[in-house]
Design brief:
By secondary structure, this protein is an all-alpha fold. It is elongated, with a radius of gyration of 21 Å. 73% of the residues lie in helices and 2% in strands. It has one domain: Up-down Bundle (Four Helix Bundle (Hemerythrin (Met), subunit A)), CATH 1.20.120. Strands 1-2 form a two-stranded antiparallel sheet. Helix 4 runs parallel beside helix 6.
Length: 243
C-alpha cells in the first residue's frame, strides 16, 4: 500500500500546527475564545520551530524540500490567515467595515504566502539553508500579536478592544505585503518569544474572565458606538434648546 506525499519527522510540527488551528476554529465557533487563542499560540510555536526541525535532516531530496515549502504555506493559510480572521470576526469585527477588513487580511496573507513560495523555491535551488531576513512581516507573527492583544481585553474598555482588533487586521495585513526587510529571529530569540507567549496565554487562561461579545451578524460595534454617540449628542442638544 502506497500513499502520495512525504512522511517523516520533518513535517510533524507542521501537521500539529494545522490540527491545533482547526481545533481552535471549532472552539471559537462555540464561544471558547480562551482555548482558541491557546490553539493559535500553539500553532505559532510549532511553525516557529518546524523549519529548524526540517533542516536538521541533511539528506532531504529536492522534492522533499519543495514539498515542505508548499506544505508549510498551505497550512499557514489556515493557521495564520483564516483562523485569526475567524477569531476577530467572532469577537466583534462585524458589519460591512469588519468584513472588508477580514477579507483584506486573508487576501494579504495568501498573497504573501504565494510570493514567499516563489522566492523560497528559487532560493533553495541556488543557495539552500536558512535565510537571514524576510521580505515583509511573516504571517506567523499574528500568533504572537493576537494573543497579546487579547490579553488587553481584560484591562481596556470594550470599544477600545474592538478598535484594536480592527486595527490589527488592517495594519498586520498591510505589513504582510509591504516590501521591507524583517530580521529573522535567532534560535534564542524564538525560545524567548515562545516563553513570553506561553506565559501570556497561561495568564489569560488561568486568571482572567472573558467578556462575552454580543454583536449581531449585521452590526459593527465601532459603528454602533459612533452612531449612539451622535444620537445622544443630538438628544442632548434638543433638550438644551427646549429648556
Amino acid at each position: 500500500m502506497r500513499f502520495i506525499g512525504f512522511y517523516d519527522y520533518t513535517v510533524v510540527l507542521t501537521y500539529l500546527s494545522l490540527i491545533s488551528s482547526v481545533l481552535g476554529i471549532t472552539r471559537a465557533i462555540h464561544g471558547d475564545y480562551k482555548f482558541a487563542i491557546f490553539c493559535l499560540a500553539f500553532s505559532g510555536i510549532c511553525d516557529a520551530f518546524d523549519g529548524i526541525v526540517a533542516r536538521s535532516k541533511k539528506n532531504r531530496t529536492e522534492d522533499e524540500k519543495a514539498f515542505g515549502i508548499q506544505l508549510d504555506s498551505l497550512c499557514d493559510v489556515v493557521c495564520f490567515g483564516v483562523f485569526p480572521a475567524i477569531i476577530c470576526y467572532l469577537l466583534g469585527v462585524r458589519g460591512t467595515l469588519g468584513l472588508i477588513l477580514v477579507f483584506f487580511y486573508c487576501l494579504c496573507a495568501v498573497i504573501r504566502l504565494a510570493f514567499f513560495n516563489v522566492l523560497e523555491g528559487k532560493r533553495q535551488q541556488t543557495e539552500g539553508g536558512a535565510t537571514k531576513t524576510y521580505r515583509g512581516l511573516p504571517v506567523t507573527s499574528i500568533a504572537f500579536i493576537l494573543p497579546l492583544a487579547f490579553w488587553l481585553q481584560f484591562i481596556i474598555p470594550e470599544i477600545a478592544f474592538m478598535v484594536l482588533l480592527h486595527a490589527i487586521l488592517l495594519v498586520v495585513g498591510f505589513l504582510f505585503i509591504f516590501d521591507f526587510k524583517f530580521p529573522k529571529l535567532s534560535f534564542k530569540m524564538i525560545i524567548a518569544f515562545s516563553l513570553l507567549l506561553l506565559m501570556t496565554v497561561g495568564a489569560i487562561m488561568a486568571y482572567t474572565r472573558f467578556r462575552i461579545p454580543s454583536p449581531t451578524d449585521q452590526s459593527n460595534p465601532i459603528i454602533e458606538e459612533i452612531v449612539d454617540g451622535i444620537e445622544e449628542f443630538i438628544e442632548e442638544s434638543n433638550e438644551d434648546e427646549a429648556a
